[in-house]
């Protein structure tokens, strides 16, 4: 198999030489790139994959090797605790440059206001920081409910437990599916079909007629159905798959944990593999902010990668 880039966010896979199927050109980084876009490569029968977070995985792997080399201990990054208070303290401090998914200016503002306390909170944060939720102002009611500035929305005793994890705000696709299933009295599979249909404006009227009829037959009263439908139509198309967000949240937490407990090794990995959105000069300044000295190039000691060196005064060098 061969995998090549087919646009700026997707990769294409073929069981034969891709040159037999599509023309190539070098992308901005010098890697071969198929000239067809993500839709065209599927139209000619190729498999398109979205492979995300690869550079961060490389940075994490490099950090772990540096920790083992310098400190003499191997860390199983998939075995670390997901409820480390110091890691969440770092995230809430907004000092998140280099950390996967939460280093942008907008994300730093959000985590500073949100103050995530557990892994589910990171999953919610990633789900909320998307164009749809931001544009539809899902973040404001969530933060207001989370911090007690406003009462959370209460819809019905059968519905409220579904929204408990997100303080009454509809955030995840899985929540949409469960709400539709409970209110309309249908299976989760049928509810998922409804969720998909809600994403298309032309389907809203027909789905609405079905939903009201099914909900009434299932024993729900009109005022409750009205409010549920209002929320579904406002937020359902902007929801995010929780499983997808959780897959993002894991390297987010792992990179935050490494920055918290092994700062020099983590930033060496970030500088070596350049996974984020900032130039190296800002990451170097971030290292200095954490008390890490940046040593000049040494013909005898330097390597092609950024390496960590312990010094007598108790601070690390990169």
Helix count equals 14
Oligomer: single chain
Structural class label: mainly alpha
Largest beta-sheet characterization: 3 strands, antiparallel
Order of helices and strands: EEEEHEHHHHHHHHHHHHHEE
| Large-scale geometry | globular
CA radius of gyration is: 24 Å
Query: In percent, how helical is the residue content?
Result: 40-55%
Termini Cα gap: 38 Å
Sequence stretches where pLDDT stays below 50 over 5 or more residues: none
Strand content: 5-15%
Strand sequence of the main sheet, in spatial order?
1-2-5
Secondary structure tally: strands: 7
What is the mean predicted local confidence, pLDDT?
90
Could you describe the 3D structure shown?
- It is a single chain.
- This protein has 318 residues and is mainly alpha-helical.
- The chain is 49% helix and 7% strand.
- It has helices spanning 38-43, 54-71, 85-92, 105-114, 119-128, 131-135, 139-146, 173-184, 188-198, 204-217, 222-235, 242-261, 263-273, 280-289, and strands at residues 2-5, 11-14, 24-26, 32-34, 47-49, 309-310, 316-317.
- The strands form 3 sheets. A 3-stranded antiparallel sheet has the order 1-2-5. Strands 3-4 form a two-stranded antiparallel sheet.
- Strand 1 and strand 2 form a beta hairpin.
- Helix 2 (54-71) packs parallel to helix 12, helix 8 (173-184) crosses helix 9 and helix 13 (263-273) runs antiparallel to helix 14 (280-289).
- The longest helix is centred in the last third of the chain and has 20 residues, at 242-261.
- The radius of gyration is 24 Å and the shape is globular.
- The mean pLDDT is 90.
